[in-house]
Amino acid sequence: GADVAVEACHEGLAERLVEANDGRPVDVVLDPGGMFSPSLDAVAPFGRVVCHGASEVESVELKRLHAGSRAVIGFWFAHCLERPDMIARALSELFGLTSAGRLRPLADDDYTLSATGR
């Protein structure tokens, strides 16, 4: 799981990520899209950026990766659904923690079924 969630505002993102990690570059950034450059700036040597949403980046200069021994990977959850064995253990653990009350989903607002448009 994630250790920290950081506001995904482009300006100052790299600094916020490093600050949240006690002033050290981070090992992994899960980039939902549009934050690739500052995310990569915050990654430690041998770390990686996982791009799991629509991103403004279509290519990465290898010099930026080589300079920090860093990696970039794309991730699309739909591919996991094609291989249920990949997610069965994680889902079982997630549901078990939730059932035991050790993990509680947070919700900022309540929405009626009619608000979903269905």
Give a description of the structure.
This protein has helices spanning 13-20, 36-41, 62-68, 78-81, 88-99; strands spanning 26-31, 43-51, 71-74. It contains 5 helices and 3 strands; from the N terminus they run αβαβαβαα. It has a 3-stranded parallel sheet. The model has no long low-confidence stretch (mean pLDDT 86). With 118 residues, the protein is an alpha/beta fold. 31% of the residues lie in helices and 16% in strands. The radius of gyration is 17 Å and the shape is globular.
Instruction: Give the averaged pLDDT, no decimals.
Output: 86
Report the count of strand segments.
3
Roughly how many Å is the radius of gyration? Answer: 17 Å
Alpha carbon gap, first and last residue: 32 Å
For the sheet with most strands, the description reads:
3 strands, parallel
What class would the helix/strand composition place it in?
Answer: alpha/beta
> Which sequence of SSEs, written as H and E, runs from N to C?
HEHEHEHH
Strand content range: 15-25%
Strand order of the largest sheet: 1-2-3
The backbone outline, from C-alpha atoms, is globular
Helix content: 25-40%
Low-confidence stretches: none
Total helical segments: 5
